[in-house]
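Q: what does this look like with 2'-O-acetyl adenosine-5-diphosphoribose bound?
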Amino acid sequence: MHDIQNVVILTGAGISAESGIATFRGPGGLWEGHRVEDVCTPQALIHDPELVHRFYDLRRAALADVVPNAAHEALARLDREWPGELLIVTQNVDDLHERAGATRMLHMHGELNSALCAACDARAEWRECLPPGSACAACGVDALRPDIVFFGEMPYRMEEIERAISRADLFVSIGTSGAVYPAAGFVQTARYHGAQALELNLEPSAGSVYFSEVRMGAAGVLVPEWVSEVLGS
Ligand code: OAD
């Protein structure tokens, strides 16, 4: 690990599974009992805003019952102690990375604790229920929606992510199935730019072949082990 300075870490639902948050592609392909198309598309928001808002209200409320696990804690430790560049890119909409203390991180698929104005793009921290038709404090239009990147929408902060990946010596993917682009393609971009790539996951992801090293197991075990290894203690 001597020649590693710049690290980019991609996390997915698997890192929060041991905290008790359901992954997306569980048995039957349902997300908390719903088809993804019914709760995670712009069309769903237009056709059934009550259902979509209620779905995210429940997910937001459920955050109160979960805590970061050993994998989030280990990445927060890495963030504090890693002397080189580090960026944790999470696809997760929960707040467990930041509650563990990570700061060099971003949410590429949005956040449950945020509302987005569909009229003016203003964002507001949001901890309560968000009924359809809630008014935006910035522009006054009744257009607040959950600040979640739906299928077919552009993930957030892609330029920043691509820049970090192009500079990375090591790309690490944790707890993601590799089923959703553009995140699923980050490993190939990282390899193209010469980075090593490590996958930590319960089972091989769709893009496992692109990694230079693959370790299978629970994130709560593998991530603390790997962080101790790279920090040398
Ligand atoms: P998935 O549910 O597709 O995949 C979760 C991955 O985590 C699977 O490969 C599991 O094997 C693995 N896993 C489960 N438990 C684990 C554990 N304890 N330790 C390590 N790995 C574990 O979730 P994502 O890949 O995050 O998009 O899904 C990507 C995106 O698709 C999500 O961000 C969301 C979704 O639809 C949007 O909301 C736009």
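Residues 162 and 186 are 8 Å apart (CA to CA). The two ends are 13 Å apart (CA to CA).
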